């Protein structure tokens, strides 16, 4: 079984080939056009996907050493994501499957982020809880089996990656700001300043408050000292990061306790954050958790995770018709 998988939900165009459950490659073209706008511009993203998709698929097929006529299925991200971006991947996947007369497999991007844990060893055992933290999502997911997942908590407003990026923008850091905030935080004191930790019921997150809190905090300090940010960048970054991680960990601990689960997985781009990784390591020794973090390449948007999800769906014979359309707000 050889499956070609395509990812185009946001600003990464990616293709991957999985052969009998083994990922052969993961070709990713990152769009740089958005940098100067400080955020993803949907219309530019769709156009860039159109430019990148054929070369990326070509490279995946050629480097896999598998003839295109030996492909058994084509998988693609159906949602959630930007409608225009998804449309490019879905249309391409449909025509490719139609031309080769092979089945199509529709994949949920958020399920795929979680299934990235099954690409390499060690793999979490069921049931586990996955904290998915990315630019667009913050979710706690109870994973009972590869294709049996339930969202047990999520954000009611901004995603945590968005909170990283928006506060970084207020501090004048380049886009996307998350990795820069992480870098400066390493040199700073996480207790230097205090920001409010949102107090939401149950397993619900909220990250819109911190952005406003940082905005007012900066306004007040800049009045007295126009150099305030330059003078205290590391401490501000460390304090913001500390607050964001603390918010995440509070709910993760609550979920683990409530469901009596110690197998804990992290997915999405924010899992690259060094403070988050350190804190998870602490908690694993404190609470006896087994923590799983995928390779960074499989944390951010990539087609290998789509291919992995397709592998499980193929085994179940879960195919879709040529009349399938993208679903921008697709749920797990
Ligand atoms: P989604 O998967 O929800 O559609 P997305 O594609 O934007 O959203 P990813 O590509 O998985 O999300 O992750 C990007 C996010 O990860 C950005 O918000 C970025 O700032 C953040 N990020 C990456 N590295 C770090 C880091 N070291 N610390 C904090 N945030 C980080
Ligand atoms: Fe993603
Ligand atoms: Mg991205």
Automatic annotation (TrEMBL):
It holds the Pfam family TsaD. It comes from the Bacteria. It catalyses: L-threonylcarbamoyladenylate + adenosine(37) in tRNA = N(6)-L-threonylcarbamoyladenosine(37) in tRNA + AMP + H(+). Its cofactor is Fe(2+). PROSITE patterns: GLYCOPROTEASE. Keywords: Acyltransferase, Cytoplasm, Iron, Metal-binding, Transferase, tRNA processing. GO terms for molecular function: tRNA N(6)-L-threonylcarbamoyladenine synthase activity. Binds 1 Fe(2+) ion per subunit. Fe cation binds at residues 109, 113, 301. Residues 22-307 form the Gcp-like domain. It is found in: Cytoplasm. Its EC number is 2.3.1.234. Substrate binds at residues 132-136, 165, 178, 182, 273. Required for the formation of a threonylcarbamoyl group on adenosine at position 37 (t(6)A37) in tRNAs that read codons beginning with adenine. Is involved in the transfer of the threonylcarbamoyl moiety of threonylcarbamoyl-AMP (TC-AMP) to the N6 group of A37, together with TsaE and TsaB. TsaD likely plays a direct catalytic role in this reaction. Belongs to the KAE1 / TsaD family. HAMAP family: TsaD. This is tRNA N6-adenosine threonylcarbamoyltransferase. It comes from Belliella marina. The lineage of its organism: Bacteria, Pseudomonadati, Bacteroidota, Cytophagia, Cytophagales.
């Amino acid at each position: 079984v050889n499956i070609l998988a395509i990812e185009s939900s946001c600003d990464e165009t990616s293709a991957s080939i999985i052969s009998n459950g083994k990922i052969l490659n993961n070709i990713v073209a990152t769009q740089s056009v958005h940098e100067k706008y400080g955020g993803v511009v949907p219309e530019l993203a769709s156009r860039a996907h159109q430019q990148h998709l054929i070369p990326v698929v070509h490279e995946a097929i050629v480097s896999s050493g598998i003839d295109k006529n030996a492909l058994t299925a084509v998988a693609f991200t159906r949602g959630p994501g930007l409608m225009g971006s998804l449309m490019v991947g879905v249309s391409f996947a449909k025509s490719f499957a139609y031309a080769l007369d092979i089945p199509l497999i529709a994949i949920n991007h958020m399920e795929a982020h979680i299934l990235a844990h099954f690409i390499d060893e060690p793999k979490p055992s069921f049931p586990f809880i996955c904290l998915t933290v990315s630019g667009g999502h913050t979710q706690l997911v109870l994973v009972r089996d590869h294709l049996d997942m339930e969202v047990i908590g999520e954000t009611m407003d901004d995603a945590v990656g968005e909170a990283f990026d928006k506060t970084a923008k207020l501090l004048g850091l380049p886009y996307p700001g998350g990795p820069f905030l992480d870098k400066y935080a390493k040199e700073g004191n996480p207790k230097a300043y205090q920001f409010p930790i949102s107090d939401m019921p149950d397993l619900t997150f909220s990250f819109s408050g911190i952005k406003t809190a940082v905005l007012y905090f900066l306004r007040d300090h800049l009045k007295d000292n126009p150099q305030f940010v330059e003078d205290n960048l590391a401490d501000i970054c460390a304090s913001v990061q500390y607050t964001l991680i603390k918010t995440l960990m509070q709910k993760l601990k609550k979920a683990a306790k409530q469901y009596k689960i110690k197998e804990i997985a992290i997915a999405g781009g924010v899992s690259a954050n060094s403070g988050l990784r350190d804190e998870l390591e602490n908690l694993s020794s404190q609470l006896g958790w087994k923590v799983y973090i995928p390779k960074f390449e499989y944390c951010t948007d990539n087609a290998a995770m789509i291919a992995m999800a397709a592998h499980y769906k193929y085994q179940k014979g879960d195919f879709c018709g040529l009349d399938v359309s993208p679903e921008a707000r697709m749920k797990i």
